[in-house]
Amino acid sequence: MVKAMVVNKGDDGAVTRQIREISEAELPADGDVTVAVEYSTLNYKDGLCLTGSGGLVRNFPHVPGIDFAGTVETSADGRYKPGDKVVLTGWRVGEAWWGGYSQKAKVKADWLVPLPAGLSTQDAMAVGTAGFTSMLAVMALEDHGLKPGAGPVLVTGAAGGVGSVATAILANKGYEVAAVTGRPETGDYLKGLGATTIVARDDLSEAPKRPLDKESWAGCVDAVGGAMLSRVLTQMKYGCSVAAVGLAGGAALEGATVVPFLLRGVNLLGIDSVMQPYDNRVRAWEAITRDLPMDKLRAMVQPATLADLETLGPSILKGGVKGRVVVDVNA
């Protein structure tokens, strides 16, 4: 028997969360690698799965947790053997497939990557999907020409998980980072991660009133979407790019036009971390070990247990979580 956070849905539609013991026989039968989970984490999607919001979970009971890191216990696949340290992010684990909020997880070998050299399983979950997505965004911006010295790079939702890691990575690589936040009290935290400028969310929260605004940003990692993304597109410098990673502010691009793309050659780059191919996953994790300062990463961590998810799940949906939450599933 292993301990897990189990989400269930009653006949009345009410979603409940309970830490209980499950048998290994209850784990997904068609997984070919069993992992003794050491750490998981908390992302916006986890908040949706824990509360039954957004339609991500279709079958109950369910074990959420879209990330985990741990040690291979059994494997029917030759790529992994007992004792190997592994990381999983994405592949709809924690949504359609039982996830990492359990002391053991059974998954497909194709979904795993080896734990990068120099990272502990705890550090890997401090990175998690949020940090992995941040690195994919920075890689995409640089693949499209972004270089230090080109001007300020905007990070929206900067105090959240994706934004915090993106700020730390960009600053460490020598970029001037302008961090957008609606929580003034996080200003010192963001400057500690390397942000040079703090931008009030209200300055960018309204949909654009004209198709082009003053050229201000050499790049952008956007975790907000909605009207803010529409506004940012009008302010991008010529030929520069926005990496879109989230929609905390909504999915509709209110007030957006194609003019920034046609007259300034702006690029809107979609970043998906869920279905990334293996080679690009390895590339991103290698870049993380090189370009993400571990002292900054550890400083943004909030430790948690499975029991803490009862309150943290709803809180992250309301913007109430700062930095990265690392969940010790065995505590």
Low-pLDDT segments, ≥5 res:
none
- What is the CA-CA span between the terminal residues? 16 Å
Order of helices and strands: EEEHEEEEHEHEHEEHEHEHHEHE
Integer-rounded radius of gyration: 20 Å
- What is the domain total for the residues? 2
- CATH fold field value of the largest domain: Quinone Oxidoreductase, Chain A, domain 1
Would you kindly provide a written description of the structure presented here, covering whatever features stand out?
With 331 residues, the protein is an alpha/beta fold. The chain folds into 2 domains: 2-115 and 300-328, Quinone Oxidoreductase, Chain A, domain 1 (Alpha-Beta Complex); 128-270, Rossmann fold (3-Layer(aba) Sandwich), CATH 3.40.50.720. Helix content is 28%, strand content 26%. The protein contains 9 helices and 15 strands. It has helices at residues 44-51, 121-143, 161-172, 187-193, 226-233, 259-263, 278-291, 294-299, 309-317, and strands at residues 2-9, 15-22, 33-41, 67-75, 85-89, 104-107, 112-114, 153-155, 177-181, 197-200, 217-222, 236-244, 267-270, 301-305, 324-328. Strands 3, 4, 5, 6, 7, 14 and 15 form a 7-stranded mixed sheet that branches. Helix 1 crosses helix 9 (309-317). The mean pLDDT is 96.
